Amino acid sequence: MGMFDYVAADLFCCYCGIQASQDFQCKDGPCLLDVYTREAFEDLIFEKSQYRLAGTCNNCKNNLQYLIWNKSAKHSEYIDQQIFKSKRNLQDEQTSQHPNHPFGGGNLCNYYVLNAYCNKCQEMGVENGSLPPDVTAEHKKLIEQQFEVFKEKSLKVFKMCDEISGVYEDDNW
Ligand SMILES: [Zn+2]
Ligand SMILES: [Zn+2]
After folding, report:
1. Rounded to whole angstroms, what are the CA distances from 131 to 48, 112, 147, 148?
2. Model confidence pTM above 0.70
3. Which member of 40, 45, 125, 135 has the lowest number of beta carbons within 10 Å of its beta carbon?
4. What contacts 97, CB < 8 A, 6 or more positions away?
5. 21-48 per-position pLDDT tens digit
6. In the Cβ-directed half-sphere of 121, how many Cα atoms lie within 13 Å?
7. How far, in Å, from the CA of 82 to the mean position of ligand 2?
8. How far apart are CA 41 and CA 7, in angstroms?
9. Distance 173 CA to ligand 2 centre (A)
10. 3-state class of 123 per DSSP?
11. What is the pLDDT of residues 148-170, one digit of tens each?
12. How far is the CA of 12 from the centre of ligand 1 (A)?
C-alpha cells in the first residue's frame, strides 16, 4: 500500500513561468505508487470533480500545488447520470404523492406546493407550486392550515426586520 500515485502533467510553474511535463504526486486516486497520464488518471477517478497535484518544479525547484478540474468525458457522463438519477427520484417521489402534495415554504411569504416534478400534475397542466384540482378536501384543508401558521411566522420575521432597521438608523449606520 503506497501513499500516493504519480500523475504526469504539463503545467505552468507559478514561480518561474516554465511549462514542463513532470510527475506530480496525487493522493486522490488509489495511492499505489503507480504512474498515470493525466487522461488515464482522470478516467480512473471519474467520480471526482477535482483532484490535487503536488510536486517540485524541475526548473526552479519550488514546491508546486495545483487543484485540477476533472475534464474527462467519463466524469461528465457520470455527473449527467447523477443529475438524471436525482431528478428521477424527485419525479417518483412527487408523482407518488399525487394528488395530495405536501406544503413547501421558503423565506418570507414564499409559499408553494411540492409538485414541480409530479408527472400527473404535468399531464393535467397544473402549475408548479399549486394544488391539483383532484386534491382531496381533507388535504386542502390541511395545507390551508399550514399556510396560516407559515404566514403568521413570516409576519413576525417582517416585524423583527423593521425593529432591527430602526436600531441601525439610531446608530447612524
Ligand atoms: Zn519553476
Ligand atoms: Zn401531482
Report:
1. 39, 9, 13, 16
2. no
3. 125
4. 114, 118
5. 889 999 999 999 999 999 999 999 999 9
6. 25
7. 24
8. 7
9. 48
10. helix
11. 888 887 777 767 666 554 444 44
12. 8
